[in-house]
Design a protein that fits this description.
By secondary structure, the chain is α+β, with helices and mostly antiparallel strands. About 10% of the residues lie in helices and about 20% in strands.
Length: about 220
């Protein structure tokens, strides 16, 4: 029941091609580990499935709120740890800019869609992600955590970003993420928004507050 060469009741071989990093058989069902940029969105009930058939990248919002990050690498590390806790695999970075570096410069700019962990599409591409300021909303908000849980919709769920709707640095970033006290402020988004407020609310957020992170697969 765990042999990818003899998986399920019919003893099928789990498919392995350029989209599949590792072919796995779990309890008689093929569940591949996908190569970066591919997702397994069609699961079989028994035996083989259609491998990693969907081109796309995963995104989530952290289940826990945190204090202002102390650096971009600190935020990236928190996203990576959150992904590990959710057994997601892959490499992850935070949607976070500072005065000298924007998310557009430091994150992979995909020409294929971004998906939440519940398989709902967030945006058709990077260009879509950074176009909400021009009246093009996200398809769905990034409000699903690394555990696959949807945040309660009535909550105010701020997210550290330091990023404008165009993907540029906002310059409101707790002094490049070094000043976790009430004298500093940062641009924050709202996890339930599909409008420009998803990354930049019309308010600044105090650096001694708690907020979440958006995490993007790389």
């Amino acid at each position: 029941m765990s042999d990818p060469l003899n998986c399920g009741d019919c003893g099928s071989v789990c498919l392995e091609d350029e989209t599949v990093k590792t072919a796995l058989c779990e309890e008689g069902v093929c569940r591949p580990v996908c190569e970066p940029g591919f997702l397994d969105h069609v699961e079989a009930s028994n035996g083989p499935d259609s491998n990693c058939e969907t081109a796309g990248w995963r995104v989530f919002v952290t289940g826990a709120q945190i204090g202002a990050p102390m650096s971009l690498s600190d935020a990236d590390g928190k996203c990576q740890m959150a992904a590990m806790s959710g057994q997601l695999g892959g490499n992850w970075k935070a949607w976070l800019s500072e005065s000298n570096t924007s998310v557009t410069e430091r994150l992979f700019n995909s020409d294929v869609p971004y998906y939440r962990l519940d398989q709902l599409e967030v945006a058709s591409s990077w260009d879509h992600l950074v176009d909400t300021g021009n009246g093009v909303p996200l398809f769905n908000p990034i409000n699903v955590t690394q555990a696959g849980l949807v945040l309660p919709p009535d909550n105010f769920d701020p997210v550290w970003t330091g990023t404008t709707p165009s993907g540029a640095q906002s310059l409101a970033d707790c002094d490049s993420w070094t000043l976790p006290d009430p004298s500093g402020t940062a641009t924050a988004g709202h996890a339930h928004s599909t409008e420009p407020g998803w990354t930049a609310l019309n308010m600044k957020y105090a650096c001694n507050q708690q907020a979440r992170l958006y995490c993007f697969e790389q």
